[in-house]
C-alpha cells in the first residue's frame, strides 16, 4: 500500500475513472466492455485486480488533487458496498481526493436496495448516474434492458430516500419505431420526476449486436434520422422549460449540477482510468487498458499493469472537437496557446462557410455551435479538422 508520501501528485483538478464491467444481462444494443455477472467470486477477483492496478506505479504526471471519482460500467451498482469501499480505499491511498469531490456511481434500475444505497452514501458517493433509458416498457423489452419502467420509478424513490440530491438520468432517443409522441411522453415523465441532470443518447446500432441483427433481418424498423432530429429539438425546448440548462450537446443540468467529471473530458483535463478497457489522459498522452476482462485480470495479477496502447494526444484538434461540444464553445486565445496557430488563419474559409450555413457563431473571443450546429456537429468537426 502507498504511504502518504508516495501518493501521486497530479496537476490541479484531475479525475479518476473506475470501470466495473459487470451487468445482470446484456442489452441488445450494447457495444461496451461488459461481462454478464456470474458470481461474487469473479467480481471479487476483478475488484482485487482493480485495486492492485490503482495501487501500482504512479502515472507520469504529478502534482495536485483529484476532485472527481467516477464508477462507470457496466453496472457498478452490482458491487456490494464492501467491494465499493475496497475500491474507494485504494483510490484514497493512491490519490489526494479533495473534500468536496464529486463521486459518481452509475446505477441501473432494480440493482440497488435501501441498504446498498446507504452503504454507498457512507463511502461518499454523492451523485447517481441513473440508467433509466426510457419509461416505455415496449422499448425496454426491445433493448433487453432487464428492467421495466416501474423498476426505474421505484429505484428513483430509493435513491431520493437514501439522500441522493444529485441524480442524473440517462435517456435514449431514436429507437426503432419510436414516435415523437412516445418521446414526448417519456421526456415529460422524466422531467416531472425532477432530476438534477439529464444526458441524452441517440441510439447507435453497432454491428454484431442482437439489435443490429433484428434490424438487418427486418424484424424491427430502422431508426429514422429525421425523427431523431425532431426529438432532439423537443428535448431542447422541454429541458429549458423545466429549468435544466444545456451545457453540452447532450447534457442538461440545473445550475451547479453540471457533471464535473465529464466536463474534464471536454476541457482536456487529466483523467486517470483504471479497470478493463479504461482510458486515461495525463494532459499529454492517451493510453488505454486491455478490453477483455479475463485477460485484464490475468495481466494485472502477473504484471500489475494491463496497458494495451498509448498515443500522444493531438491537443489542438481535440481542443476543437471536444471544446465545441460545450455550450461555452472554445476561446481563440486558448486555441492559439495550444496549437501555435490562429484559428481564423488556419480554417478561415471553412469557418466562413460554417457561419454562413448557421452552424457556428463567433464573437471577438469565442467560437460556438449554434442550435442547428449541435444537430450537425459531426459535419462541423469534420470541416474544421
Ligand atoms: S446496462 Fe449498459 S453496459 Fe450493461 S449491458 Fe446494458 S448497455 Fe451494456
What characteristics describe this protein?
Arc Repressor Mutant, subunit A, TIM Barrel, single chain, 2 domains, 3-stranded antiparallel β-sheet, alpha/beta, 9-stranded mixed β-sheet, disordered N terminus, binds iron/sulfur cluster, 385 residues
Outline of the structure:
The protein has 2 domains: 4-266, Aldolase class I (TIM Barrel), CATH 3.20.20; 315-384, Arc Repressor Mutant, subunit A (Orthogonal Bundle). 41% of the residues lie in helices and 22% in strands. The protein contains 15 helices and 17 strands.
What does the secondary structure layout of this molecule look like, with pairings?
Blueprint: E1 14-20, E2 22-23, E3 35-36, H1 40-54, E4 66-73, H2 81-94, E5 97-107, H3 114-122, E6 127-133, H4 137-142, H5 149-161, E7 167-173, H6 180-192, E8 197-202, H7 210-216, H8 225-241, E9 245-248, E10 251-253, H9 260-266, E11 271-274, E12 279-281, E13 285-289, H10 293-303, E14 307-312, H11 315-323, E15 330-331, H12 332-339, H13 343-356, E16 360-362, E17 366-369, H14 371-375, H15 377-384
Parallel strand pairs: 1-4, 1-11, 2-3, 4-5, 5-6, 6-7, 7-8
Antiparallel strand pairs: 8-10, 9-10, 12-13, 13-14, 15-17, 16-17
The chain binds iron/sulfur cluster.
